[in-house]
Each structure stands twice: as C-alpha cells, then as structure tokens.
Amino acid sequence: MNQILVLLMAASFILTSCKTSFSQKKTQAHMATEIDNSATSLTLDAVERFNAAFNRHDVDAVMNAMTEDCIFENTNPQPDGTRLVGADAVRAYWGKFFAANPDAIFETEEIFATGDRCVVRWIYRKTKEGKPWHLRGVDIFKVRNGKVAEKLAYVKG
Fold first, then answer.
1. pTM of the predicted model, to two decimals?
2. What sign results for the dihedral spanned by CA atoms 16, 19, 25, 27?
3. Of 14, 88, 100, 135, which is most buried, counting CB atoms within 10 Å of its CB?
C-alpha cells in the first residue's frame, strides 16, 4: 500500500511540474507573440510613414523615416539594380529621382509585415512620353528602431 501511495504522490508531483512548465511555456509564447505583434505594428507604421513621405516627394521626410546607415537597392540597371548605402547616397538619389519624376506615385496594392520585415506590393505610376505609364513591383523593407534600414525593390518584367 505504501508503494502505491508513493507512486501516486510521485505521479501528482510530475503532473504538477508538467502543468507548471507548460503554463510557463505558454506564458512565454504569449509574451513573445505580444512582442512580435508590437514589432510588426511599429514596422508597418514606419513603412507607411516612409511611403507617405515618398508620395509627397518630401526628401527630408523620406530621410527622417530612414536610418543613417540605410540601404536602398534600386531596380535599375537590370538585372541587379544599383545598391546605395548610407543616408548621403540615398538622399542624393531621392533628390534626383523626384526632380526627374515630378508626378510619380506608388499605390500600395498589398502590405504585410512580421517583426521587423515588411513586404509592399505596389503599382508605380507616372507620365512617360506624355502618356500615363505604370510598373508593378514589390519592396522588401527591414525596419530598425522605427525607421527603414533597408528598402530592396523588385519589378515585374
């Protein structure tokens, strides 16, 4: 009888330990999800702030939305585009780009994020040779401390 009592006590202890461990892991997973959701929300906010500044052609606001060590990969020239590193290089590019494309806008078709990463599927519209013109593509963003650290652009066709 004592052996049965000892076994029951041991089983009870094991079940209690497992329940506590499971509860702690569940709490840790919930906390991680809350942190991920918070980071995702900050990432979406940063990218939307960047996109709004871009569509206003506001170089200062675009650069305020980017980190000092930002990276921008353009789509031209094909096939790999141009990689610009650092705020000075990226600022110079945006200044020239907005001057050369005064009516250019990006329309977001879809946006989604997880953690510090965001993908935007877009249509780029402007006037080319006096006629409406558009191009479709995707940007992959990396956000750090509420600012765009990377913007990697890809196009269809």
1. 0.76
2. negative
3. 135
